[in-house]
Amino acid sequence: MRTRPIADAHSERGSLPTGDDAAIGQTAIGTEDTTDPQEDELPAHVPDASRGCLYLVGTPIGNLEDLTLRALRILKEVDQIACEDTRHTQKLLTHYDIHKSLVSYHEHNEITRAPELVVAMEAGAKIALVSDAGMPLVSDPGHRLVTLCVRHKIPVIPIPGPSALLAALSASGLPNEEFLFVGFLPNRSGERRRALERLRIEDRTIIFYEAPHRVAETVADAQEILGDRTACLAREVTKLHEEFRRGKLSELAASLAERPARGEITLLIAPEEGVAAGSQAGTSQSIAARVEELMHQAKLDRKEALKVAAKERGLTRRAAYDAVLDERQSAEEV
After folding, report:
1. The pLDDT value given to residue 19
2. How distant, in Å, are the alpha carbons of 71, 72, 78, 102, 264 from that of 57?
3. Tens of pLDDT along 176-218?
4. Are residues 113 and 209 in the same domain?
5. What is the rounded CA–CA span in Å between residue 233 and residue 213?
6. Would 4 be classed as within a structural domain?
């Protein structure tokens, strides 16, 4: 019997396949390869479907109605579901009357669990990877499993779903043409401040995930290091107590002091108004002095400090290094 490759249908046009049995080798809409392969042969670029596949399934970030119809179908069809917390995922499956085998996959067991899942997929299993909320791998475990699948030529198929960072960005009112997603900042104050210092010259909207018990400290650090920029704190997005607090970082700090935030938090910070990378090219402070300042204040090593100082002035790192040498030579001659 001819084996059919598993793949994702990327089009809503009626003329294309609508299920995940469609050939992975399809090109752009309306330009798929119409060559008819021999009955017992598969195109060389199409993975063998009999080896199974990995689905990366986006799940609701708060509102159960946000689970897509396609994600619902995949969860019903797969042989097994790998998840961060089996108890949490079981609630979702129970809500939709889905009965599937669950296996835990989290940061503490992925070193051993990932190879086990790959072996199962090589034997033909179709496995869905889900996180507790949102898309897998976005500030969640899964990278090790995906890289193993790629290495073993096992198809990896994304099933898009809810995303807290994109939902928050769309409603924030901040510039969204370009943005930088950082994820979670370090827990320790010193490391967090160093991370923020590296972002000081960033000229795109910056997006963080943050825990409620640390968000006030993060906002205060951001105001001190990045300046009093326009920002948005998105809380409990898609949930019953969804809230957006907008304003300057100083205003958010005051709001948090008066009414601490609870729940899942996404913090968005706009670029400094009227300032872009390279705008400090005309500063009176020497590059060497700025490098020393960054090393002292942000605890950066000399190489990283030089990189930041160079970007602030719109210079290449080599040009900045030469400027530092020139400044030192001039100082020695004096």
Report:
1. 55
2. 6, 9, 11, 14, 20
3. 999 999 999 999 999 999 999 889 878 899 999 999 999 999 9
4. no
5. 14
6. no
CATH number, domain of 227, equals 3.30.950.10
Which residue, chain included where needed, has tokens 């409990």?
Answer: 236
**pTM given for the model:** 0.70
Higher pLDDT, 17 or 86: 86
Q: How many domains does the chain have?
A: 3
What are the CA-CA distances from residue 19 to residues 53, 86, 236 (Å)? 15, 27, 33
Work out whether strand 265-269 and strand 230-235 pair parallel, antiparallel, or are unpaired: antiparallel
Q: Say yes or no: 158 and 177 in one domain.
A: no
What percent of the chain stands above pLDDT 90? Answer: 63
Max intra-chain CA distance, the chain = 86
Residue located via tokens 């939709």: 96
**CATH number of the domain where residue 77 is located:** 3.40.1010.10
- Alpha carbon 330 to its chain centroid, in Å, reads 46
Say if residue 55 is in the same domain as residue 158.
yes
DSSP for 236-273, written as a single string: STTSTT-EEEEEEHHHHHHHHHHS---SSEEEEEPPPT
Beta bridge partners of 80: 101, 127
In this structure, is residue 11 part of a structural domain?
no
119: containing domain:
49-162
Helix (H, G, I), strand (E, B) or coil at 223: helix
Neighbours of 79 (CB within 10 A): 15
User: Do residues 287 and 305 touch, judged by C-beta distance below 8 A?
Assistant: no
Same domain, 56 and 119: yes
Amino acid symbol at 159: I
Question: Do 314 and 284 reside in the same domain of the chain?
Answer: yes
Same domain? 148 vs 76:
yes
* Residues shown for the chain: 334
Which of 162, 188, 214 represents a domain boundary (last residue)? 162
Residue-wise pLDDT for 19-72, tens only, equals 555 434 433 344 444 444 443 443 333 445 567 999 999 999 999 999 999 999
Among 250, 269, 288, the domain-final residue is: 269
* Distance between CA atoms of residues 253 and 228, nearest Å: 10
Contact 57, 71 (CB under 8 A): yes
